[in-house]
């Protein structure tokens, strides 16, 4: 098979780029290892920044998001038994975020690809990237017993943290920066009315908790747990009890609980791979960088990569201008590192660290005290949370 752009990974990054390129007549193929059902069963992000929402609209995929997504103009930080609100709208100069699940957004992207007869190949096994530094790269994969080959101009590695693309870059070329946190998030999705119409990030000595939502009838909650915990060890009842303990009483009293429809543990990690380009391979999204979910930046950072990559591809194919492609890695990384900094800061401020000394705890308290006493600090938080400009 021959195409212009071969995209590895049919998650939100890969599908969004595929859709945007196709709308401009740039032929592409998406190779996804899993089934569509599997991809759509992953419960992940919930908060989209303005720039991402715009990109979805540009991809002609924003209709349901605009209809069903919720605009959030603020969120709460619960600490020391009280709730402080971060007024995003006020402190970001009128901006907001959209609460719309990654699952729904990915479904919208798949449906858009279907409508345009986009080529998304599922169950692509054993994907291998070849001749990335030459003029004629190609990708091979197995489909059942058949070995298939895709010849292309460019390969996009949008295959997430565990994908094959980043690993195809020689060790001597790639530099990796990583911080692994000594805890994970246990998440529960339940068909219950959310405890709060706006998100609550809760700092508590027993551990961090987050009250989020997908709609006014679908709640998403998380609690910080040790890495040694197994999801099977957490009954629904134990989860709700622990969540309640970590919230201010006025909140836990009005918590409506119900059976979990999904329950999983995600480890927390910060990770960046540099550079994000190797020859004709370009990395995007989780394939190149991971953040702990505390700042809701992961999917949003993927979106900014796609924005840069999309415009770089337009430059190449429509104007014969390669400056976007040449500048991609540096431009994307500059923004990626700012999302890293913000996510790290939110994580450090709000979690309980098993090895922290009294001095560290005092600094955490002071971070919060400073935040809610300084308009400059609130502006900085709001500016980062609603998303820095692309
Ligand atoms: P994905 O979603 O991992 O998709 C990659 C796809 O590539 C496929 N794949 C392969 N395909 C072919 N060959 C191979 N060898 C392959 N290896 C892998 C995979 O099957 C998959 O379909 O990466 P992408 O597209 O870059 O998207 C990134 C986002 O998924 C991620 O950043 C966010 O979910 C992070 N995140 C959040 N981000 C936000 O912006 N806001 C949030 O509120 C937010 N909350 C979260 C999150 C992530 C979480 N977890 C579970 C890590 C909450 C959680 C709990
Ligand atoms: C979510 O709803 O899954 C969610 C929201 C905000 C975060 C992380 C996850 O910071």
> Alpha-carbon distance between the termini?
34 Å
Contiguous low-pLDDT stretches (5 residues minimum) are none
Which compounds are bound in this model? 8-demethyl-8-dimethylamino-flavin-adenine-dinucleotide, P-hydroxybenzoic acid
What is the radius of gyration computed over CA atoms, rounded to a whole number of angstroms? 21 Å
Strand order of the largest sheet: 6-5-14-15-16-13-17-20
Q: Quickly name the level 1 CATH class of one domain.
A: Alpha Beta
Q: Using DSSP, what is the number of strands?
A: 20
* Beta-strand percentage range: 25-35%
Main beta-sheet strand count, sense and barrel state: 8 strands, mixed
Mean pLDDT: 97
CATH architecture label name of one domain: 3-Layer(bba) Sandwich
The total count of helices amounts to 12
Approximate helicity band: 25-40%
What's the CATH superfamily of one domain, by name? Answer: FAD/NAD(P)-binding domain
Describe this structure in words.
The chain is α+β, with helices and mostly antiparallel strands and 390 residues long. It has a domain at 5-52 and 61-69 and 101-178 and 269-351: FAD/NAD(P)-binding domain (3-Layer(bba) Sandwich), CATH 3.50.50. Helix content is 36%, strand content 28%. It has 12 helices and 20 strands. It has helices at residues 12-23, 36-39, 50-58, 63-68, 88-91, 102-115, 236-245, 249-252, 298-319, 323-350, 358-371, 375-386, and strands spanning 5-8, 28-31, 47-49, 70-72, 74-79, 82-87, 97-99, 119-121, 125-130, 138-143, 146-151, 154-157, 175-190, 200-202, 209-215, 218-226, 260-274, 277-278, 281-283, 289-290. Strands 6-5-14-15-16-13-17-20 form an 8-stranded mixed beta sheet, with helices on both faces. A 6-stranded mixed beta sheet has the order 8-2-1-12-19-18, covered by helices on one side. Helix 1 packs parallel to helix 9. It is globular. The chain starts with a strand and ends with a helix. The mean pLDDT is 97. Bound molecules: 8-demethyl-8-dimethylamino-flavin-adenine-dinucleotide and P-hydroxybenzoic acid. 8-demethyl-8-dimethylamino-flavin-adenine-dinucleotide (RFL) binds next to helix 1, strand 13 and helix 9.
């Amino acid at each position: 098979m021959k195409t212009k752009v071969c995209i590895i990974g049919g998650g939100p990054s890969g599908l969004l780029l595929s859709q945007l390129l196709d709308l401009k007549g740039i032929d592409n193929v998406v190779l996804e290892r899993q089934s569509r059902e599997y991809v759509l069963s992953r419960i992940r992000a919930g908060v989209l920044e303005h720039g991402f929402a715009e990109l979805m609209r540009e991809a002609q995929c924003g209709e349901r998001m605009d209809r069903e997504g919720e605009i959030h103009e603020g969120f709460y930080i619960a600490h020391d038994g009280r709730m402080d609100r971060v007024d995003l709208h006020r402190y970001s100069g009128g901006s907001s975020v959209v609460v719309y699940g990654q699952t729904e957004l990915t479904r919208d992207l798949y449906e858009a690809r279907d409508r345009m007869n986009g080529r998304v190949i599922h169950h692509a096994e054993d994907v291998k990237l070849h001749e990335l530094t030459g003029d004629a790269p190609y990708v091979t994969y197995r489909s059942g017993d058949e070995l298939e080959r895709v010849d292309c101009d460019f390969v996009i590695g949008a295959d997430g943290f565990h994908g094959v693309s980043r690993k195809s870059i020689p060790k001597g070329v790639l530099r990796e920066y990583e911080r692994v946190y000594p805890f994970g998030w246990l998440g529960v999705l339940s068909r219950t009315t959310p405890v709060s119409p706006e998100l609550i990030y809760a700092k508590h000595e027993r551990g961090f908790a987050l009250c989020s939502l997908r709609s006014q009838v679908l709640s998403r909650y998380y609690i910080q747990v040790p890495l040694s915990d197994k999801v099977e060890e957490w009954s629904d009842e134990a989860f709700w009890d622990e969540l309640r303990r970590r919230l201010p009483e006025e909140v836990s009293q009005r918590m409506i609980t119900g059976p979990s429809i999904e329950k999983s543990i995600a480890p927390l990690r910060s990770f960046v791979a540099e550079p994000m380009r190797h020859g004709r391979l370009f990395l995007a999204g989780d394939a190149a960088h991971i953040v702990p979910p505390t700042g809701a930046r992961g999917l949003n950072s993927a979106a900014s990569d796609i924005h840069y990559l999309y415009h770089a591809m337009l430059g190449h194919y429509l104007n014969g201008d390669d400056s976007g492609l040449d500048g991609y890695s540096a431009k994307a990384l500059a923004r990626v590192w700012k999302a890293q900094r913000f996510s790290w800061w939110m994580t450090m401020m709000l979690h309980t660290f098993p090895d922290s000394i009294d001095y560290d705890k005092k600094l955490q308290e002071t971070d919060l005290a400073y935040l809610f006493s300084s308009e400059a600090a609130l502006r900085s938080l709001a500016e980062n949370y609603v998303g820095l400009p692309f």
